[in-house]
Amino acid sequence: MLSAALSFDSLLSELNDTIDELGDPRKPSNATSYSVKDAVLGAFSCFFMQSESFLDYQRQLNSRSGRDNAQSLFGLENIPSVEQIRRSQWACPDA
Question: Which run of H or E residues covers position 17?
Fold first, then answer.
Protein backbone atom coordinates (compact mmCIF):
# COMPACT_ATOMS: atom_id res chain seq x y z
CA MET A 1 0.00 0.00 0.00
CA LEU A 2 1.44 3.34 -1.06
CA SER A 3 1.23 6.25 1.33
CA ALA A 4 0.56 9.67 -0.15
CA ALA A 5 2.32 12.63 1.39
CA LEU A 6 -0.20 14.79 3.20
CA SER A 7 0.78 18.39 3.63
CA PHE A 8 -1.15 21.60 4.00
CA ASP A 9 -0.23 22.58 0.44
CA SER A 10 -1.44 19.27 -1.02
CA LEU A 11 -4.67 19.43 1.01
CA LEU A 12 -5.31 23.00 -0.10
CA SER A 13 -4.55 22.10 -3.71
CA GLU A 14 -7.09 19.26 -3.62
CA LEU A 15 -9.66 21.54 -1.99
CA ASN A 16 -9.14 24.23 -4.63
CA ASP A 17 -9.48 21.66 -7.43
CA THR A 18 -12.77 20.47 -5.92
CA ILE A 19 -14.06 24.03 -5.46
CA ASP A 20 -13.30 24.77 -9.12
CA GLU A 21 -15.62 21.89 -10.09
CA LEU A 22 -18.54 23.07 -7.91
CA GLY A 23 -19.95 25.91 -9.96
CA ASP A 24 -22.26 28.46 -8.34
CA PRO A 25 -25.89 27.34 -7.96
CA ARG A 26 -26.89 30.41 -5.88
CA LYS A 27 -29.56 32.84 -6.97
CA PRO A 28 -28.43 36.49 -7.13
CA SER A 29 -28.67 37.98 -3.61
CA ASN A 30 -26.49 39.42 -0.86
CA ALA A 31 -24.93 35.97 -0.56
CA THR A 32 -23.41 36.33 -4.03
CA SER A 33 -21.23 39.28 -3.05
CA TYR A 34 -18.55 36.69 -2.26
CA SER A 35 -17.37 33.98 -4.60
CA VAL A 36 -18.09 30.34 -3.83
CA LYS A 37 -14.34 29.85 -3.54
CA ASP A 38 -14.03 32.54 -0.85
CA ALA A 39 -17.06 31.16 1.04
CA VAL A 40 -15.75 27.58 1.01
CA LEU A 41 -12.18 28.57 1.85
CA GLY A 42 -13.46 30.88 4.58
CA ALA A 43 -15.47 28.06 6.14
CA PHE A 44 -12.53 25.67 5.79
CA SER A 45 -10.18 28.19 7.42
CA CYS A 46 -12.44 28.39 10.50
CA PHE A 47 -12.37 24.60 10.87
CA PHE A 48 -8.66 24.33 10.08
CA MET A 49 -7.65 27.08 12.51
CA GLN A 50 -10.27 25.83 15.03
CA SER A 51 -11.46 29.36 15.70
CA GLU A 52 -14.94 30.69 15.03
CA SER A 53 -13.54 34.23 15.19
CA PHE A 54 -10.72 33.52 12.70
CA LEU A 55 -12.32 35.44 9.82
CA ASP A 56 -13.09 38.49 11.99
CA TYR A 57 -9.49 38.49 13.21
CA GLN A 58 -8.24 38.30 9.62
CA ARG A 59 -10.33 41.35 8.65
CA GLN A 60 -8.83 43.27 11.58
CA LEU A 61 -5.31 42.11 10.70
CA ASN A 62 -5.82 43.19 7.09
CA SER A 63 -7.04 46.65 8.10
CA ARG A 64 -3.94 47.12 10.29
CA SER A 65 -1.25 45.71 8.00
CA GLY A 66 -2.82 45.35 4.55
CA ARG A 67 -2.33 41.57 4.55
CA ASP A 68 -3.72 38.61 6.48
CA ASN A 69 -3.32 34.85 6.87
CA ALA A 70 -6.58 34.18 5.05
CA GLN A 71 -4.94 35.61 1.93
CA SER A 72 -1.46 34.18 2.57
CA LEU A 73 -2.45 30.66 3.65
CA PHE A 74 -5.82 30.03 2.03
CA GLY A 75 -5.83 32.38 -0.97
CA LEU A 76 -9.07 34.19 -0.12
CA GLU A 77 -9.63 37.30 -2.21
CA ASN A 78 -12.46 38.67 -0.04
CA ILE A 79 -13.14 37.57 3.51
CA PRO A 80 -16.82 36.75 4.03
CA SER A 81 -18.33 37.25 7.46
CA VAL A 82 -19.33 34.22 9.51
CA GLU A 83 -22.97 35.30 9.08
CA GLN A 84 -22.47 35.48 5.30
CA ILE A 85 -21.21 31.90 5.25
CA ARG A 86 -24.10 30.73 7.47
CA ARG A 87 -26.72 32.50 5.32
CA SER A 88 -25.32 31.26 2.02
CA GLN A 89 -27.98 29.28 0.18
CA TRP A 90 -25.18 27.25 -1.32
CA ALA A 91 -23.66 26.30 2.06
CA CYS A 92 -27.00 25.63 3.76
CA PRO A 93 -29.54 24.43 1.18
CA ASP A 94 -32.03 23.38 3.88
CA ALA A 95 -31.88 26.74 5.71
Answer: helix 8-22
